[in-house]
Amino acid sequence: MSRLIVVSNRVSAPKAMGAKGAQGGLAVALSAALGDYGGIWFGWSGQETDTFTGHLDMQRNQGVTTATIDLEPQDVDEYYNGYANRTLWPLFHYRIDLTEYDRNFGEGYERVNARFADSVGPLIEPGDLVWIQDYHLLPLASLLRGKGLKNRIGLFLHTPWPPTRLLVTLPFHERLVTSMLACDLIGFQTSEWLESFLHYIDKELGLPVSPDGEIEYEGRTIQARAFPIGIDYADFTAGAKSPEAEASYQKLRQSTRGRKVLIGVDRLDYSKGLGERLDSFGRFLTDNPEMAKDVVLLQIAPPSRGDVASYQQIREDLERKAGHINGAHADVAWVPIRYVNRGYPRTELAGFYRAADIGLVTPLRDGMNLVAKEYVAAQNPEDPGVLILSRFAGAALQMPDAVLVNPMSSEEVSIAIKYALDMSKEERIERHTKLLASVRDSNVENWTRDFIADLSGRTPAPDLI
């Protein structure tokens, strides 16, 4: 059987992989796949070095081998903070107003991808399957082909793919996309992002595209498909029943003193629509004064990418908005918004989700959004909460039984909050039953299995999950 070589921007050190519940669902799934197939997980260690040497730190834990390299500060600044997070990330989330086009960023991105190719290439044996993760490494397959690699290579995009008219604002966009066509399989979260990619291939590159997503390029056939990712359902639901989850459930319920709880859990990022969410909640408080003092919004927003100026500005704006809304509506016994700028372990989050009457998941644009799925999985099926979900999240295509909203309309979200609070128990159960079936069946293990099966050219094994 072929080995699996996973390549991602960052790799968790093996010691951090010890407890399954301590890591995200993607890490769990990839670790499990590597354990089944054998192989290596390669990427950046997250550490910096004064001079890049290409030294590989090889470690093995619980059947998974990792190989990591350190990068120079200039690499981190230009490749990661620059091109990845100040050029591609905002562009792929439709924010061309925040997209920065800097020649140095592009050069750093190409340099680090070349360093990845130089470092991982010698680790790949004939017959290995190579699976590249996400927008940080779009040129990597082409660089590996340039070194003579003949293996099957797959690429999966965890982000949206922007419409053609936005993508063409990117300098050298053709070179970037054609480098992706060195892959054998390119995966997207949803049919919408897939269709945007194929539209670009047709309109800008003029390449033949078949109805089932096959692209003909330089005598090769590349398959493009949608593979919607899910959560580690079994592990997450087990964690939701743990003592830690029960403790966080009781803590939130007791501290809110019988009030209805809305919860948002998002990395601090402009794509998550956090400012718009606070505005919408403030609109709800103003429009429904008779209900206002009976509700609390818990917004958990751990910081991210603190070295990027736009993220520092987001934090300042949110703190100011939360303070303004609380100042306008609070009294001595009640504060409407609890804004928490830190992260929590997944088991504690599961307890918070279960305690919340409404899950408020309203990104402006999201590749998938697994918080929506975690919220549904954590609910008590006999008395579930209501998921309010942005129609611009990839998850909306899989979860039509959520209350779908336009997150940019504070009026629409305000009305949705009132509707959810007034919703009958029978309707809540009916919606939750359908949502839970989708979350259970579209889990991360099936996503991993289906992608690897397509990459290897095999028929997926029967679903035993």
Description:
The protein is built from 17 helices and 15 strands. The strands form two sheets. Strands 3-4-2-1-5-6-7-9-8 form a nine-stranded mixed beta sheet, sandwiched between helices. Strands 12-11-10-13-14-15 form a six-stranded parallel beta sheet, with helices on both faces. Helices cover 44% and strands 18% of the residues. It has helices spanning 25-37, 73-92, 103-120, 140-146, 164-167, 173-180, 191-203, 233-240, 243-256, 274-287, 289-292, 309-329, 346-355, 370-378, 410-422, 425-441, 444-456, and strands at residues 4-10, 39-48, 57-61, 64-71, 129-133, 152-156, 185-188, 214-217, 220-226, 260-265, 295-300, 337-340, 358-361, 386-390, 403-405. By secondary structure, the chain is α/β, with parallel strands linked by helices. Strand 5 (129-133), helix 4 and strand 6 (152-156) form a beta-alpha-beta unit.
Keywords:
disordered C terminus; Rossmann fold; 465 residues; 44% helix; 2 domains; alpha/beta; 15 strands; 18% strand; 9-stranded mixed sheet; globular
- Number of alpha- plus pi-helical segments: 17
Secondary structure: number of strands: 15
As laid out across the biggest beta sheet, the strand order is 3-4-2-1-5-6-7-9-8
Mean pLDDT: 93
User: What percentage of residues falls in helices of 4 or more residues?
Assistant: 40-55%
Gross CATH architecture of the largest domain:
3-Layer(aba) Sandwich
Rg from Cα: 23 Å
Largest sheet: 9 strands, mixed
Derived from helix and strand composition plus strand pairing, the structural class reads alpha/beta
CATH topology of the largest domain, which one? Rossmann fold
**Strand fraction band?**
15-25%
The CATH top-level class label of the largest domain:
Alpha Beta
The figure for the number of domains is: 2
